[in-house]
Write a structure and sequence with these properties.
about 40% helix, alpha/beta, about 325 residues, Aminopeptidase, seven-stranded mixed beta sheet
Length: about 325
């Protein structure tokens, strides 16, 4: 087996967005003591959004195609410098709890994807959150990709940096061309603190947006592995430090119910995907701005729905 193939196999189970780390710890803690976790969930900031299908961009057709054994949640990494800003969603993912196929599915949506944002016209998917917060971000995803998302969880980049510091930093292999973008770094594998890891994951001028997404995957895999490796006895203190940085529309009871159903369904597989699928999208400058434009949105809608609801994955060209 070649080194490239070996690396590809190793990345199949990687977690590449921020909130799933928090969710996984919550699910594990549910097996220890639900009441304790229920009280700890008070630390998360509850953000109310509409429950109306029209407000969320859910059509009758989409709703009828939904599966009660499958729950989709929008996970957002928000680019903002302080809590008073709404911010763009620099990282966007659909987390799918698939009890039918006993999987957790994580689908990354490229933030620069050229989509129709309701009442704002064609723009980058990541701008929807800046225009109308999580509700508009969800509506934009649902309307453009025929999805049935009703809830979200989010963390901003400043908070993610703090989470990495709480874990004691993560080891990253810095390449020569990346050094100048990561303060205080050098070439090779080294321990990065939260600020350095965040700078690494946000590098824009080395490679394409796909490579930037790969750096985010590396960071989040490291975060997940270190968090899980900390041991169950340390999870309460980690949750105590992490949860105050999480915003979500999910109620405490809904979070517990989701965690309980995940555990009782004996879900043990994590699968990942990316939309638009590479080979079915092209980079294009429109009015001087660079976008990732799906060759046909219908193809990518089909790929996404097949992955989430039918457990079928279209490979990159």
């Amino acid at each position: 087996m070649s080194n490239n193939k070996s690396k590809k196999n190793k990345t199949k189970g990687q977690i590449f967005k921020r909130i799933f780390f928090v969710s996984l710890i919550i699910f594990v803690l549910l097996s220890i003591g639900g009441v304790y976790v229920f009280n700890m969930l008070n630390k998360m900031e509850k953000i109310d959004i509409s429950t109306n299908d029209e407000d969320l961009g859910i059509t009758k057709e989409t709703s009828s195609n939904s599966n009660k054994e499958i729950t989709n949640i929008a996970l957002l990494g928000i680019d903002r410098r302080n809590s008073n800003e709404v911010g763009r969603s620099d990282s966007i993912m659909i987390a799918t709890i698939d009890r039918e196929h006993k999987k957790i599915k994580l689908t990354s949506l490229l933030r620069d994807t050229y989509v129709d944002i309701p009442n704002h016209g064609m723009d980058k998917l990541g701008h929807a959150h800046a225009y109308g917060g999580p509700e508009l971000a969800i509506k934009t995803i649902n309307q453009n990709f025929n999805m049935d998302i009703r809830d979200f969880a989010a963390v901003d980049f400043e908070s993610f940096s703090k989470i990495i510091d709480i874990l004691g930093g993560i080891e990253i292999d810095i390449k020569p061309e990346e050094i100048k973008y990561v303060p205080g770094s050098r070439e090779g594998t080294q321990l990065l603190d939260g600020e350095q890891a965040l700078a690494y994951s946000r590098i824009r001028k080395v490679g394409s947006d796909y490579q930037r997404t790969e750096r985010q995957r590396i960071v989040l895999e490291k975060v997940l592995n270190k968090g899980v490796g900390a041991g169950v006895t340390k999870y309460p203190s980690l949750l105590n430090a992490i949860l105050p940085h999480v915003e979500t529309s999910l109620s405490k009871s809904a979070t517990l119910s989701l965690g309980t159903s995940t555990l009782t369904s004996k879900i043990s597989t994590i699968d990942q995907y990316r939309i638009p699928v590479k080979g079915y999208v092209h980079s294009q400058r429109i009015n001087g701005i660079s976008y990732e434009v799906p060759d046909t949105l219908e193809d990518n809608i089909g790929f996404l729905n097949n992955f989430i609801y039918k457990d079928k994955k279209e490979l990159d060209k």
